Structures are given as C-alpha cells and as structure tokens.
Batch of 4 targets.
Target 1
Amino acid sequence: MFQFTLLLFVYLHFAYAQGDVLVYLCSQFCGRPVTCSAPLLALLPTLLAALALRAVRRLLAPRRIAKTIASVSVAWFSAAVPSLPFASLRWQCGLLAAALLMVWAGWQIDRYYQRRHGPARSPWQKFLPRALQLLLLLLYIGLGTAVPDTVHYELRTAAALRSPQPERAYRVGEVELAATPRLFALRSFLLATTQPRGLGDHLFQQPIPPGGSGLLLLPTDRRQALILPPDSLTRLLGLAPQPAESPISYLRRCAEAATRGQSCERPPQLPVDYYLCGLLLDRQLDQFAAEVTRYYPQSVRQSRLPRYYAQALVWYARVRTHPTVIYRDAAIEANLRDYLDLSRTLSPGPQRVNLLRRSYGETYWWWYEYGSSGTAQQP
C-alpha cells in the first residue's frame, strides 16, 4: 500500500503538477516543440520510478533500510528531474543532501519503533512510522521541485496558444500579479491575435514587467524556440528584425511596410497595433499622437479609438501645453478628472501610489506616472 500510494503521487505529480515541464523536457530531448498528452507521457517516468524502487530494494535486501532508501530515491528522482532546466547546481546538491537526511530520518524512525515495541508490533504501530515517512516524502517532492510559478505560466500559455482554442491561454495565471518579459510577450501575442480591437483595448489590464517596447517581442533564446518559436510573431508582423535595430524602430518598420499603398484608416491591424502600443510603453506621447492620427484619422475625429489609445490621447492633451491632437471622450475625461482630484488629496509616497493603483491601476495615466518599474510583482 505504501509503494502504491507513493507511485500514484509520483504519477499525479508528473501528469498534472509538472505536466507542462515534462512536455518541455521532451521537447528539449527531441530538439523541437513537441505536442503530446502530459498524462500519457507521465507514465514513462512513473514506470522508471517503479523499476528503480524494485531494483534498489532487491539490491539492498535483506537490510531493513532498503525500503527507506528505495522510497527516498524515487522521491529524489521525482523532484530532481522536473527541476533540471530551472534549478542551479547548488539547489540540486541541496536536494541530494536533503534526500540523504531523509534516509537518516527514516532509519531513525524505524529504529525508535523497533526498540520501543520490538518485533511484535500492532498494525497501528507498523502503520504510523510508514505513514509519517510517506508524508515526509510527499512534502519533499512538492517542496523540492524548483520550477517557479511564472515558468509554469509561460509553458502553459505557450501550449494554449498552439492549441485550437488559444483563448484559454489568458486564463493561465490571470489572477497572479507576477509576470516575466516572456509571459508578457506571450499574453500580448494572444491579445493582438484574438481580441477584436487588439492590444489597444487590453494592454495595460495585465501585469507589466519593467521595460519598454521590447517587452512586446518574443525572446529569441532556446526555451522560446521550444515552446512557441519567435517567428510565430515575426511572420504576423511581416518582417524580421535587423541586427542592432531597436524594438521601436523594428515595429515602426513593420507598420510602415504593412500599410504601404493602402488606406491609412483601415490598415492591417496587428503591425500597427504593436507599433502604437510600443510607443505607449516607451512613453513617447508626442510620437504616438502623430502616428495614431496618421493611421486612424477618422477614428480620432469620431472618438472611436480603442480604450488605451483614447486614454493616451486624453492624457496627452492634459500634460502638453500645446497638444497637436484633441480627443474628446466625456467618460474618459471624467475618469481622468476623478484621478487628478484624488491624487491632489494624497501626500506623495508609496501610500499615494498604492491608493491610486487600487482604483486607477488599469488606466494609462496611472501607468505613465508610476509604472516605470513595471506593474508586476517580481518573480
């Protein structure tokens, strides 16, 4: 029963808690993105764990400590394997040291019950030390696996983006405030490709890590290539970045190439969307006002811009002495007045920032004034 419970936990650990990591490890082994069922793939490490359990027990039989060493070996395998791409050597050494400590603790528990009750122990006296050892092993597996939550969000978001229902991707970790540049880029890719009004309606609703327009671009490292290749985005933008080209220059080039020879009022949305949002992230308000008027002149005149483009223009008219664009939206202007009134009643400092964030954290003006270090908690 002890072995069955341990192996069942190992299977659930690999299939569900670390299923995304297991698929990523398989992709690393194959050298390309792999799409497979994590519950099915988890059968392989569970089988290896069962074989290791049996082999160690046979190798060390008839020593009483054989069962303890075998079960701790399985626990160490279950925690160390998912941690391989993400844990430092120091962590892996600590994990091994903790496993040796678990063997010593299991041996001491066995000796204590043997010395106190002798061979003629009741079923309860036999069950209690095994249950205690099992509990320690399960805690060791759960706490010893060194995969940050943000890595899980990245892997699961990328997997959902590759699936037939990419809308599921944004539900991954949506209530968490932690975000990495990779996770932000993946979520922005989702919003730009699935929302009717694109990034301009949703960009600042999500946690934003420190950085500017470069946050919109998918990283080009090996991990990105194995979960969602960077050319997934560059194909949609229409051009590949050039060496030493800044992110905003690259996005400008993509927007200009996509709209060349076409009506400016109805351009291909995604390249222009990325360029305008890049200007907002870089706080280039004057350039943004000029470009949004260039690409969406009729929408500016008729006050039909996406949410954050409209907020940025209203804020631009407020902070510039001689604005070149005046955008009218009564609801947005009233919201900005409320924000400024509340801001004037609060003393400068962290409390002011947090109180304003509570009510206006998803507005462009709050991000413009206080979001220089990002709005996401650092993982």
Target 2
Amino acid sequence: MKIASGADHGGYAVKQDLVRRLRAQGHEVIDVGTASAETSVDYPTFAHRVAAMVASGEVDRGVLVCGTGLGVCMTANRHRGVRAADCLTPHLAEMARRHNDANVLCLGGRLLSEDEAWAITEIWLATPFEGGRHSRRVDLIDEESEPS
C-alpha cells in the first residue's frame, strides 16, 4: 500500500516510529515531514500535504499525527474525498474503516505511546470497508450541503 505520512512537532516521534514499522511491513511510505520535534511547526501544513495526496489518488491512504490528532483531522477533512478519523483506540480505528471507509488516520502523539499508535494503525490498515448500507452514507459525506 502507498501511504503518505505527516506530523507536526507534537507528533514527530510517533510518526517516525510508524513510518519505520510501515516500511518494515513493505508499505511504500511518503514522509512529508516534519523533520524534527525541536522546532515548533504548524500542523495544517503537513495535514494539507497528506490530504491532498489522498484526495488526488497519489497515495492509497494517509497517516497524520499531532499532539491530540484533532487539528490534523480537522484540516484533512477540508479536502473533498478525504475521510479522516482521529482514533484513540483500535475499536475506533476498526469502525472508522468498516463503516466510514476512513482513508486518513489521525493520531495523538501526546496521548498515545508508540506501541498504542502502532496497534491502532495495524487495525486500521487491516480492516476492510463493509460497503452495503454504509456506501450510501459515505457518498453523502461529499455531497454539497444546503444552506439552512
């Protein structure tokens, strides 16, 4: 699988560990940065890069890490066709894939250990989208909303 990965300084250590483990499993990983935990950087920069790659089909999926996972998730979901999910447990990761066809995983680098983040990532990668009634719902996500 081709995966884009990015993080800010708060997610740098977890991202580095995930990139290493993903490559060891044979995935092609494009690391868009950041390159250090030492310098404060803006998470939207990296989230937009990964989300754009997923939205364009350049990669199959994306993995983003910031301090809580919230900021990168909000940013990534601004891209049409991206379904980013901030997952704190393996169960959330499984449901994000099974029912929502999440194509970007967001993680909290200050909330999860490297092993916890890896366990969540493994489930997220291994879980297929169920389709069926969920397909219609996923299609509705990208429909233009009507003003209230």
Target 3
Amino acid sequence: MNEMIIDFPGGARVDAHFGGYDILTDQPPYAGGQGSAPAPFTLFLASLGTCAGIYVLGFCKQRGLPTDGIRIIQRMESDPATRMISKVELEIQLPPEFPEKYKEAVIRSAEQCAVKKHLENPPRMTVVTKVMA
C-alpha cells in the first residue's frame, strides 16, 4: 500500500507528505482559514484538468507536435439542490496550425486521464482509528 502522511500544521491547514513532496492546503478566509494555499477540493478539481493535460502533452510529444498555444479550460457546473459538482467540461484549445487529423485523437488522449477513470470506477474507501502509543 502506498502511504501519505496527513498532518495539521495549524489553523485550518491540512497538509499531505509523500515521496519527498509536500502538498499544502488551507481553507479560504470565509471558511476559517488564511487562504495561504488551495483548499483540498480545489486541488481535487485541478487534478482533473492537469491529469488530462499530462495525457495531451504525452500525445503531442509522441507525435512531435508543439504544445505552444495549447491550453485546457476546465468548467464546472453545480447542482443547486446538492451544491455538488454535477458536470465537468474540459475544453482543449488548440492553435490554428494544429493538424486537423489529430483533433479527435487529442480528445481521446485527454479522456484516458487516470483521475477521470478513478471517478468513473471509484475505489473503496475505509476510515479507521488507531491510538498511538
């Protein structure tokens, strides 16, 4: 099992540590934090677009296509009744010189995103407690 250490450095901060990396999170001021880092849910949403971006980048690199001028715009819609995200749209913006023959394939590459696939087939999550000695 891979492991992350999650700790509480103060205020509304909750940070994750793994493999030599530190992922810092905080809540915005209206939610009791200082806004010193993205909120955890914001990082989750960003992981969708950045993961798709990794696949688009890999697609372009494999074919020797320049990535200058390519960007992804991520839009979210919320269900007003539940206040949950009900739709995420990724719009891959391509420069005019991007080859027409690869436009559908670049969409298919973004759809291979591991984060997207995990949302479509979510892992089982358990929560337990342990008293430390």
Target 4
Amino acid sequence: MVTKTSTGLQASSTVYALSKEVKRPIGVYVAIVLLLLGALGNLFLIIPEIPAYIFGKLVYGVLGAFIGLIFGGMGIALGYGFYKLKKIAWTVGMPWLIFEAINGFLSLLVITPIAIGSLALIALGSLVTSIPVILYINFKKECFIC
C-alpha cells in the first residue's frame, strides 16, 4: 500500500521488507544441502558404537561423541550462515571446510585398510561435501555481504 504524504510517496513496511530481501544464487542452496548432509554424517558419530576420526586417529567414547557433535554443529551453523549470506559464515567457513577436507582425506588414507566401512564412508562424505562447497563459496564470496 502506498500513501500520499507531504514529503511524497511513502511505501508500506511490507514493500520495504521485500526490497531488503537478498536473492540467493541456486548454488548457495546446493552448498547448504551439502553442508547439512555432511553435518548429518558427523552427527552419526555421536552414537557410542561408532568411533570418530581426527586426522586418521580413531577416537572412541565420550571424546569421539564430542568430536562428532562439534563437526555436526559447525556444519549446521555454517549452513544457517550461508542461508542468511552472512560474511562471518564465509570467513569461518573457509578455514573450517579446509580443515574438514584435510581431515577427511587423511582419515580416508589411514582408515581404508581397516575394515570400518561406515567410518570410511563418513570420511569420504566429508571430502565430497566440503570440497565443492569450498570451491563454490570461494567464487561467490561477493554474495556474503552482511
């Protein structure tokens, strides 16, 4: 709704809210889905029977569950930050995703000879989800403005 005032035309608050909305590229949604899939895989490490991994070292018990919770929580937090196109998500996301890719790569090299299929799958998933997101957000860093 537009109303006439002494200073000219004044747009309603709904039009103003729509004008503030930022258009997200479709690739951002793909990156969010990949991050959330990676976070879901890392959250499976909270199950006590599944060990977590950090640079090829298997970590069991409470510490392993804590590592899975940190990795899963960071994936969810970065997904939310990418959805909101927050600059801090890009700033924190790049080093975190590089760390996660290196961790997945080293763990995959060390864990593959061991017959732990689900853990090797999670390490491979870490690579598959982090590397495309790193490449995409590096080329689209101008979208992360606020």
